[in-house]
Amino acid sequence: MLLDVFLDAVKDCLRDLPFLFVAFLLMEMLEHHAADWMSRTLGKVNKLGPLAGAVLGCVPQCGFSIMASDFYGGGIISLGTLLAVFLSTSDEAAIILMSNPGHLSDVLRLLVVKIILALIWGYLIELGAKLFRMKHAVKRKELRDFCENVGGEEEGESILGSAIRHTLKVFLFLFIFTLALNLILELVGMKGVSKVLLSNTVFQPVLAALIGLIPNCAASVILTELYVEGVISFGSAVAGLSAGAGLGLVILWRTNRSKKENLLITLLLLGIAMVSGIVLQFLFP
C-alpha cells in the first residue's frame, strides 16, 4: 500500500511539473518587466487605491502583497488599498489550478471573486477609516525609495533561475502534501477527512482562514490541493487564500512600527476572510 501511495504521488506531481514551470516562468517575466511600473501605479492612484490594489494583487505569487506592506509601512498607500491587495492575493493557488487541466475554469472564478471581494472590502475599510478618523501614523516617504530592487528575484538571479527555484519549491510542497493526503485517504477515507475538516458546516471557512494565516506558500498549496481533491468547498478555499496574503503580513509586522495597528490589520483580514468564506459557501455550495 505504501509503495502504491508513493508512486501515485510521484506520478501526480510529475504530471504537474511542466505546467508549474511554464506558469512560473511567465510570472517571473511579468514581475521582471512590469513590477516597477505596477509599483509606481499602486503608489500614485490615491482614491482609486483599492481598485488598483485589487487588480494588481491578483497577479500570482505574493510579490505585490510584500510591496504593498512596504508601501503601507512608509505611508504611501492607505489601509483600504493594503487590505485590497491582501484579499486579492492568491499566492501559488492560481498557478497550481492552472497545472490541473480539469480546474482551469476555477482560475478565472477564483480571481474574479477575489477581486470583487477586495474591491468591496477595500472601499468599506476606506469609508470606515474616514468615519472613525483613523490616520496612518507613519510619516510619508518618497515613493522612489520603495521602487528600487522591485522584481522578486534574489540578487543576481536570472528570470530562468528564479522560475526554476519557485517551481522546485512548490513541487516539493506539492509532493509532500499529496503523499500525506493520499496516505490519509487510504487509511481513513474521504468521509473521515471531510469530517475532520468540518465539511458542509459554516466552520470550515473559519478553519481554512486560520490555515491561510500561515506565512508561507505551503498554506496556499495545501488549501488549493484540498479544494482540487474536493475536500473543502470553494468558499473555504477563498477564505483561506484571502487570509493568506503570502508573506505580506510578515513584511507588515517588520516594516510598520505600530504593533497595535499590525494586530488590528491581521484581525481585520482574518475576520473579513471568514465572513466572505461563509457567504460564498452558501452561494457556491
Please describe what this structure looks like.
The protein has helices spanning 2-44, 49-57, 63-73, 79-88, 93-98, 104-131, 159-196, 203-212, 217-228, 234-244, 248-255, 259-283. By secondary structure, it is mainly alpha-helical. The chain has one domain (2-283). The longest helix has 43 residues, at 2-44. The chain is globular, with a radius of gyration of 19 Å. It starts with a helix and ends with a helix. The model is unreliable at 137-153 (pLDDT under 50).
Key traits:
285 residues, mainly alpha, globular
Q: How do the helices and strands line up, and which of them pair or pack?
A:
Elements: H1 2-44, H2 49-57, H3 63-73, H4 79-88, H5 93-98, H6 104-131, H7 159-196, H8 203-212, H9 217-228, H10 234-244, H11 248-255, H12 259-283
**Number of discrete domains:** 1
By DSSP (H or I, 4+ residues per run), the number of helices equals 12
Low-confidence stretches: 137-153
Number of strands: 0
Largest sheet: none
The best one-word shape is globular
SS content category: mainly alpha
Strand content: under 5%
Helix content: over 70%
How do the SSEs run, as a string of H and E?
A: HHHHHHHHHHHH
